[in-house]
Amino acid sequence: MWARLLAAFVFCICFAVTFWYALVHTVHQGTVAVPALKAQSIEGAEQIAHDMGLAVLIEEPGVFSGDVPAGSIARQQPYAGFHVRTGSTVTVRLSLGSERVEIPDIRGDSVQSALRALERSGLVPGRQVEVKGQAGGDLVMATDPPVGSELAPGGSVDLLVNVTPLQEIWVMPVLLARSEDTVRRFCRESHLRLGQVHEIPYPGLAPGRVVRQYPLEGSRLARSDIITIWVSR
Question: Which CATH code for domain 2-94?
Answer without folding.
Answer: 3.30.10.20
